[in-house]
Automatic annotation (TrEMBL):
<dbReference type="InterPro" id="IPR017871">
    <property type="entry name" value="ABC_transporter-like_CS"/>
</dbReference>
<protein>
    <submittedName>
        <fullName>ABC transporter ATP-binding protein</fullName>
    </submittedName>
</protein>
<dbReference type="Pfam" id="PF00005">
    <property type="entry name" value="ABC_tran"/>
</dbReference>
<dbReference type="InterPro" id="IPR050166">
    <property type="entry name" value="ABC_transporter_ATP-bind"/>
</dbReference>
<dbReference type="InterPro" id="IPR003439">
    <property type="entry name" value="ABC_transporter-like_ATP-bd"/>
</dbReference>
<dbReference type="InterPro" id="IPR027417">
    <property type="entry name" value="P-loop_NTPase"/>
</dbReference>
<dbReference type="GO" id="GO:0005524">
    <property type="term" value="F:ATP binding"/>
</dbReference>
<dbReference type="InterPro" id="IPR003593">
    <property type="entry name" value="AAA+_ATPase"/>
</dbReference>
<keyword id="KW-0067">ATP-binding</keyword>
<keyword id="KW-0547">Nucleotide-binding</keyword>
<feature type="domain" description="ABC transporter">
    <location>
        <begin position="4"/>
        <end position="232"/>
    </location>
</feature>
<keyword id="KW-0813">Transport</keyword>
Length: 256
């Protein structure tokens, strides 16, 4: 039984003047502990799909199942911006989700502080977000997301605003952290290399309305390596060229 089933999802946005179909007939399965990526042209509905999986919006058609159930699950959502509250300390930001979900107690508080330490953020609890670098803020946001022990993490281009070196370091950190905690994750990205380095499966979306144009399976030899090390393997470049060619063909074909 798959951990996550996306079944025949279609979604249309309606306004008084028009209707726009963002997604049509999206379906795939994700196993527990698996990391998958969604790539494709801008406007192909990737973020809309994340919002549907998160339960933020309801699809026009289809359904999302967690272990064959439509029951609500604890979702962790991490975006391009860290959305740390600037007037709150890192400790207050870290514990916010636990307070909202009424999970805050001595045990969960200590576990949250342990997360900060594991993510290399020792002794910053009393600092404010503006006192931290972009990479440190994203690590703090990751700790806040993981503190509530989500069933699945939804990552919407969380590294795209960072400089390249910070981005590579954070990729490794997120990859290792999710493996340690056996978390299931779905990443939306425009970066083909990032998708290959972090995923076991990559779903390439067509332009609007978004459909799954092609699925790529990342070789096991790459899946077992950290993102930084995976980028150095010959299989990495081969897969990159294949995805690049398909994406290029897709964009040229759909703009004709």
């Amino acid at each position: 039984m798959s951990f996550l089933k996306v079944q025949n999802i279609s979604h249309t946005y309606f306004t008084l003047q028009e209707q726009t179909t963002a997604l049509t007939n999206i379906q795939f399965d994700v196993e527990k502990g698996e990391f998958v990526s969604l790539i494709g042209p801008s406007g192909c509905g990737k973020t809309t799909l994340l919002s549907i999986i998160a339960g933020i919006i309801s699809p026009t058609e289809g359904r999302v199942l967690f272990e064959n159930s439509e029951k609500d699950r604890q979702i962790g959502y991490m975006l391009q911006q860290d959305y740390l509250f600037p007037w709150k300390t890192i400790e207050e930001n870290l514990l916010l989700g636990l307070r909202i979900t009424k999970q805050l107690n001595n045990k969960t508080k200590q576990a949250a502080f342990d997360l900060l330490s594991k993510l290399g953020l020792q002794q910053i609890e009393n600092k404010y977000p503006h006192e931290l670098s972009g990479g440190m803020r994203q690590r703090a946001a990751l700790a806040r997301t993981l503190a509530v022990d989500p069933d699945i993490l939804l990552l919407d281009e969380p590294f795209s605003a960072l400089d390249y070196q910070t981005k590579l370091n954070l990729e490794d950190l997120v990859f290792n952290t999710l493996n340690t905690f056996q978390k299931t994750a779905i990443l939306v990205t425009h970066d083909i290399e990032e998708a290959i380095a972090m995923s076991s499966q990559i779903f390439l979306f067509s332009k609007q309305p978004g459909t799954i144009y092609k699925t790529f399976i990342v070789p096991k030899t790459l899946q077992s390596l950290t993102p930084f090390k995976a980028r150095q393997q010959p299989e990495f470049q081969t897969l990159f060229q294949n995805i690049w060619k398909e994406l290029n063909h897709l964009e040229q074909h759909q703009t004709e």
